[in-house]
Amino acid sequence: MRADDWLSDTRTSYDTVAAGYADFVRDAIPRLRYLRTALALFAESVLAAGAGPVADVGCGPGHVTAHLHALGVDAFGIDLSPGMVEVAWRDHPGLRFEVGSMTELGLPAASLAGLLAWHSLIHVPDEAMPSVIGGFHRALRPGGALQILFHIGDGSRLKTEGYGGHPMRVRVHRRRPGRMAGWLRAAGFVTEAQLLLDPEEEAAQAVLFARRD
Q1: Number of separate domains in the chain
Q2: Confidence of residue 101 (pLDDT cuts 50, 70, 90)
Q3: Dihedral, CA of residue 125, residue 131, residue 136 and residue 139, to nearest 10
Q4: Which among 26, 132, 197, 211 has most CB atoms closer than 10 A?
Q5: Distance of alpha carbon 35 from the chain centroid
């Protein structure tokens, strides 16, 4: 699949489900204590290193961006879907959100104190991962913190229906933590820790904590 095909499908799909997805995740952080802890550790790491701007890449409706902001982090959101960005502006007025693609981050080199990508790498095909992770590395300053959340497993599936029963067309890729850590290492990151969520369940997820070397 060409890059513009999967990007176009992802953008259109999330434009379609933006409102329903916002409702689906609205109480996710208050409800999921381990994810709250992961965000608290990320915020602590950024602030302890001198603070600075943090990009929530693939921010969706902005709930994670807003939570980081409440923790004292200078967070802003970037999302491929204009529909998602509109919902983020609606739900979190006063915070910064912009339309953009992780395949071409329009951010100055070494400008970020931290970068977070929660469930936004799951639609990126394997062949595009080195370039995307490399873009993260370029945008982060030396020592900058990176945190990613993704589904654990092998292979991918085509998702054709989404939040609120609306049609979607996106591939959902599952990866093993070791494989993700390998991409990070190749790009110049040091993985410091990993958190496995529901590791014995079908819906297992992983959080990787890394830092630009």
Answers
A1: 1
A2: very high
A3: -150
A4: 132
A5: 13
